[in-house]
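Async update (no meeting this week)

Hi team, since we skipped the sync, here's where things stand on the single-chain job. The sequence we agreed to prioritize is pasted below, unchanged from the tracker. I ran it this morning and attached the output directly underneath so nobody has to dig for it. Comments welcome in thread, and please keep replies under the output.
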Amino acid sequence: MRQLEEKGIIIDWCELCDGIWLDAGELAHLTETPGDLSAQSPERQITKTRRSAHPFCPHCRLLMEEFPYTDGENIFLDRCPKCLGIWLERGELQAVYDHWKQQSVGLSAAAPSQNPATLADPMGWIAIGIILLIIIGSALFFVLHR
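Output:
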């Protein structure tokens, strides 16, 4: 395998099959996502079907496990059960990038009301302040007039 550097991480690339090996956490760093779903989601159904041309972990030499990377999409990756490294076959890294690109576009279009600019609205904060004053005033009234 040949080592390449991308975004500050070392990628192990197989020139024969065009596959990529990433250590645990490197896929999240490479795709600039919150975390590897493989490490965070042990409940994801592991399949024993071997479709990979590279069935063994290059570090641990254990049989890799295939798992669905995402829900509802046909992205299946191979993961080492011990070191949680991930093997990506040709085209799978692009599929992961496309998935996250689609997710980020969908999230920004679906939630315009959660725009941080709305938190700076002074009228909203004034309304919250008035509601809190009413609640605190009512509580004090009941405590003092018992």
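Quick observations from my side:
Strands lie at 2-6, 9-13, 20-22, 65-68, 76-79, 86-88.
Residues 2-114 form one domain.
Reply here if anything looks off.
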